[in-house]
């Protein structure tokens, strides 16, 4: 069951499959959420603007607006929104595109509802168990409340997944974090996921951080994982 609170977490389900959409809404309601089902992208965007959703479950292929575009626009409007994308294609480029659009996780169809519910619980725990809304490492300031990273006075533009990865490494500063641990923490799974995606995102972060006076280094520990280390 979803964690108890004064008001159930509202979930926006956007799925054009007229069998799967209502099934997901009913299942989430049984889990203790307050779920609304929408069949197309434009209506979902309008609905989201008028309501306070904590979670969005989005199909990639939607009429009127792709799930990628809907994800991007929802993320721009609500940085703290938990977004889980559903895709029928087990294709790395599609998954990377969704994550870069702002998704927190993805699930490949067909899937068991129990797995979807578990993914959402894990995503909620990840948000609630963040060590601090503000982490300072060297000259880096990572603000989880506003989803902003600064190096001194300069804002570092990061995608949501880059932000989550940097924050996780900063929470474990000077410690080597294994690739598998990063996959579980940031992507929610080690299944259907090429571990090279971690290397790819580490490369993205390096390109953005290395030109800046951060006083930290993003290091590769060969055969093990990665480390955000203070320069000494």
Outline the structure in words:
- This protein folds into 2 domains: 10-128, Response regulator (Rossmann fold, 3-Layer(aba) Sandwich), CATH 3.40.50.2300; 134-230, Orthogonal Bundle (Arc Repressor Mutant, subunit A).
- 40% of the residues lie in helices and 23% in strands.
- The protein has 232 residues and is an alpha/beta fold.
- A 5-stranded parallel beta sheet has the order 2-1-3-4-5, with helices on both faces. A 4-stranded antiparallel beta sheet has the order 6-7-8-9, with helices on one face. A 3-stranded antiparallel beta sheet has the order 10-12-11.
- Helix 4 (92-101) links the parallel strand 4 and strand 5 (105-108).
- It contains 8 helices and 12 strands.
- The radius of gyration is 18 Å and the shape is elongated.
- The model is unreliable at 1-5 (pLDDT under 50).
- The longest helix is centred in the middle third of the chain and has 16 residues, at 113-128.
Helical content class:
25-40%
Count all strands and give the number: 12
Number of helices: 8
Structural class: alpha/beta
Straight-line N-to-C gap: 47 Å
Rg, alpha carbons? 18 Å
Order of helices and strands: EHEHEHEHEHEEEEHEHHEE
> Stretches where pLDDT falls below 50 for ≥5 residues?
1-5
CATH class of the largest domain: Alpha Beta
Mean pLDDT: 87
What about the largest sheet? 5 strands, parallel
